[in-house]
Design a protein that fits this description.
single chain; alpha+beta; Aminopeptidase; seven-stranded mixed beta sheet; 6 helices
Amino acid sequence: MRYSELPYIIEPMQISDIQEVMEIERASFPSPWPASAFKYEIESNSFSHFIVTRAKAIPPSPPTEGRGFLLRMRHRREEAPKPPILGYGGFWLMAGEAHISTIAVRPGWRRRGIGELLLVAMIDKAVELGAEVMTLEVRVSNIAAQNLYRKYGFEEVRIKRRYYMDSGEDAIFMKTEPLTSINFQARFRMLKGELEEKLIAGAD
């Protein structure tokens, strides 16, 4: 994927990003991680690889973001012209397995391909780091996420009963075939090309 031509930037998560990441985290999950967990992943966990995405330019805020978001963006423009974080994701790489631990997109910016972009960027990074396969857990009720993962070659391995402590909901454990296999890479290149066209066209 020609990341340099996309309307979004992908970069490693920094400590200075945590406040914005927490806004998205709290809006996305019933049992959000504490800020200290992200700090640990960035500073202390050598197995962690966390990224954020932001627009290349400060975008107009969708109506659903509200006045508070606009005020924060106005304040940010005055202090430093850095666009807001629109999403983030992270995985742990251990023994050849890249395990996606989290992925989320800011409310109001979903269904624009940002979550898919984060997934693609994490797969690319995992391959670069020598990962053999990628795995994850997803709620049985999260059909949209399951469809995205299946699109990228993740297959159901087993059900983890009562995996989510907040609700007791089951999780589906999913896994890819080898990331460097001919079949996976052929499909991945095709999907990346389609996503690239979509994101570039959406920026016009």
